[in-house]
């Protein structure tokens, strides 16, 4: 992925390929002339800045899914809180869902603002060892639609990577939009150039309609050389808030995430239940671990955090 320039056309064959500057997808690309001569575009001057920012971040984890609505943001926010339950660890969230940022609401900091200084943007503090950066903090109205084409989205992602002053961080969780498009390509490209990327957690729900797109995300990771830490099956069952009885909500007509992991040689890290109390806590911006410390789901998130840490060390 590193041989595809940020401003390249969607059909870029890569600057190191035999068709560079000559393939049909190169028509109209600003780099076409340089690639055709074999020189390629000049190095991105912002990559060293990104490398400098990320040099103080120990572990970088992407939260991915080809499907929308499977709970990537829910997983990100609660995994971050679970990791931050260890006060000796610094945890941060980067919300790169440009068109649908939800982390500020879920984390209870929707009305906060990002401060800009000579050192860059200061992420919003949630608790002493947990911070967040999201485009939602930069919008004049939380209901404003972000109507941007790919190039501007990519520019915003680059700005997040090079301008946010994270400080010393043990775990950075990156909440992404669904799909395998511009945002994902740019994000992976910059992260891989900035240094080692620990890998991705892939989120799914049990039904085949979800798994169809999740398999594409697995393929994306393989093609872009992003390690897959494991798969999390969200909403695997419903837990009744009154009697704690569990019910399967979604059909596993093709075996669910468990079968997909067997077929793809991936590890299924967790099968998280659906609890109404979690939706209420996130809507209210509350800490689910404080409001429901003894719930099955809270314990599942803490167990998942331990598995993720074991993967990284």
From TrEMBL:
Residues 1-25 are annotated as: Disordered. GO terms for molecular function: 4 iron, 4 sulfur cluster binding; ATP binding; ATP-dependent FeS chaperone activity; metal ion binding. One of its GO terms (biological process) is cell projection organization. ATP binds at residues 66-73. It holds the Pfam family ParA. Heterotetramer of 2 NUBP1 and 2 NUBP2 chains. It comes from the Eukaryota. Keywords: 4Fe-4S, ATP-binding, Cell projection, Cilium, Cilium biogenesis/degradation, Cytoplasm, Iron, Iron-sulfur, Metal-binding, Nucleotide-binding. Belongs to the Mrp/NBP35 ATP-binding proteins family. NUBP1/NBP35 subfamily. [4Fe-4S] cluster 2 binds at residues 240, 243. CDD domains: Mrp_NBP35 (cd02037). Its cofactor is [4Fe-4S] cluster. InterPro entries: AAA+_ATPase, Mrp-like_CS, Mrp/NBP35_ATP-bd, NUBP1/Nbp35, P-loop_NTPase, YlxH/NBP35. Binds 4 [4Fe-4S] clusters per heterotetramer. Contains two stable clusters in the N-termini of NUBP1 and two labile, bridging clusters between subunits of the NUBP1-NUBP2 heterotetramer. PANTHER family: CYTOSOLIC FE-S CLUSTER ASSEMBLY FACTOR NUBP1 (PTHR23264:SF35), NUCLEOTIDE-BINDING PROTEIN NBP35 YEAST -RELATED (PTHR23264). Its main location: other. The lineage of its organism: Eukaryota, Metazoa, Ecdysozoa, Nematoda, Chromadorea. The keyword Phosphoprotein does not apply. It is found in: Cell projection; Cytoplasm. [4Fe-4S] cluster 1 binds at residues 12, 26, 29, 35. This is Cytosolic Fe-S cluster assembly factor NUBP1 homolog. It comes from Caenorhabditis nigoni. GO terms for cellular component: cell projection; cytosol.
């Amino acid at each position: 992925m590193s041989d595809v320039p940020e401003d390249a056309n969607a059909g870029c064959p890569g600057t190191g390929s035999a068709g560079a500057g000559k393939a049909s997808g190169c028509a109209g690309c600003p780099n076409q002339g340089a690639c055709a001569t074999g020189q390629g575009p000049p190095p991105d001057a912002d990559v060293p800045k990104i490398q400098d920012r990320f040099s103080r971040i120990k572990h970088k984890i992407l939260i991915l899914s080809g499907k929308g609505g499977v709970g990537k943001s829910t997983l990100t926010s609660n995994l971050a809180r679970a990791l931050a339950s260890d006060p000796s660890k610094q945890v941060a969230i980067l919300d790169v869902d440009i068109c649908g940022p939800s982390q500020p609401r879920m984390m209870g900091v929707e009305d906060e603002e990002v401060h800009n200084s000579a050192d860059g943007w200061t992420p919003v503090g949630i608790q002493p060892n947990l911070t967040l950066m999201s485009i939602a903090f930069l919008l004049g109205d939380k209901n404003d639609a972000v109507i941007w084409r790919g190039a501007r989205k990519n520019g915003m992602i680059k700005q997040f990577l090079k301008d946010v002053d994270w400080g010393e961080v043990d775990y950075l969780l990156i909440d992404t939009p669904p799909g395998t498009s511009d945002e994902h390509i740019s994000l992976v490209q910059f992260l891989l150039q900035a240094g080692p990327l620990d890998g991705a957690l892939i989120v799914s729900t049990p039904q085949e309609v979800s798994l169809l797109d999740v398999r594409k995300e697995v393929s994306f990771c393989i093609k872009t050389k992003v390690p897959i830490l494991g798969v999390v099956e969200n909403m695997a069952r419903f837990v009744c808030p009154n009697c704690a009885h569990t019910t399967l909500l979604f059909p596993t007509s093709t075996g669910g995430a468990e079968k997909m992991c067997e077929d793809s040689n991936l590890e299924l890290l967790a099968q998280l239940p659906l609890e109404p109390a979690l939706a209420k806590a996130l809507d209210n911006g509350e800490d689910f671990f404080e409001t429901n410390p003894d719930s099955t789901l809270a314990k599942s998130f803490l167990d998942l955090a331990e598995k993720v840490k074991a993967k990284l060390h």
